[in-house]
Amino acid sequence: MTTAAEANALRDAPVLDIDPYSIEVLRDPYPFHEALREAGPVAFIKAHGVYAVGRHAEAKTVLSDHARFTNAGGIGIQDIRKPGDFRIPSRLLEADPPDHTKIRTVVTRLLSPLVIRKWKEGFDRKAEALVDHLLEQREFDGVQDCAERFILEAFPAAVGVRLPRTETLAIGEMRFNQSGPRNALYERAIEAAQPYLAWFEESVSRQGVMPDSIAELLFRAEDAGELDEGIASNVVRSFVGGGTDSTIAGIGFTLHQLAKNPAQWQRVRSEPAKVKAAFEEGIRHETPFQVTYRTTRGATELSGVRLDADTKIGVFMGAANRDPRHFADADRFDVDRPALAGNHLALGSGIHACIGQMLARQESEALIGALARRVVGMELTAPATYRPINQMRTLDKLPMRIVPA
Ligand code: HEM
């Protein structure tokens, strides 16, 4: 609660006249990130009438303080409680306690470290087979032939959903554009996904998921009354939405940096613990889930800046992960950076922190580990390109060559 004297001492957020959703910014967000951080602890984004934070300290505060910043308005730029034509909200991510707590408790039990460890052998086998194939090819696209191919095999088998490439990528692109403003990317992605909407509904339904899988266990939790009706399918939808494109992007970024920095690749090859560190640094350095939103419950303040009630605030995790106040030499990719996990915000923070993070780590470790054991060198054969998506950063192409050990 802010007293009247404190309220008078507050200042207004500086206005930033850059559109974070313009194609130029989506292709290269770093100048915008710097402008956002340097504008102050909080800025007002004129183009969309929302607040934004880009410094690590404020980003962490907003993510952690669910009493002042609600998720019920949705994690996109639109307030999904207002009239409009919105996507189907995530009943886990776009909910507050106690509803969120009830669902998260069940999902946490199903995705326990023990369950995830059991998937390790299958991930390792798939990664070895893929690396066999890549070593025969020598030159390939690190996105489509490596990161995508691995995740689209490993993730569905683990969780229990069927994810063919064309359909899955179209749905993913729609979801991450739909949480941004109604711009051309938004409209195009919705149109491109239309032919696959019915397939997606079916694949996250009780009939569509694989028997005895985590996905099916969610439906059983519904039968047992642990989850309300309709939650299981919604959570499976969140698994697919949260766990596919983001992990592909994270592996792609890690490979990109390792191919560009041969000394870093040799560090990863020479010390097995650096395999983990490489993925962690990969998602810090180029954060897949660039921005998430919260909504102020009432008028409040953040680092001395006045915030109106019921207003969206964008947490630019990509900017926070390169905040020089928090990370030394923040633009540099460095697998030797101390205490990475839990320090960057690529997997969120607070009660909504990524529930699939152990799974994403295990998948990426399997793939990068298999490459580290068998590939002595990797390099780019052309510059990498990015695919502009409103709320996600991801590579489009990563042309690369590998040399067997
Ligand atoms: C590198 C890969 C991944 C990244 C970068 C990532 C990123 C994130 C972030 C930033 C959040 C918090 C969003 C917010 O607070 O608004 C989150 C939440 C979530 N993630 Fe992930 N994620 C990844 C992998 C996965 C995987 C593999 C799954 C599959 C199970 C998953 C499922 C979820 C779910 C269901 C939530 C919502 C949790 C809640 O609201 O309690 N994610 N993720």
Automatic annotation (TrEMBL):
Transmembrane segments: none annotated. InterPro entries: Cyt_P450, Cyt_P450_B, Cyt_P450_sf. PANTHER family: CYTOCHROME P450 YJIB-RELATED, P450, PUTATIVE (EUROFUNG)-RELATED. Belongs to the cytochrome P450 family. This is Cytochrome P450.
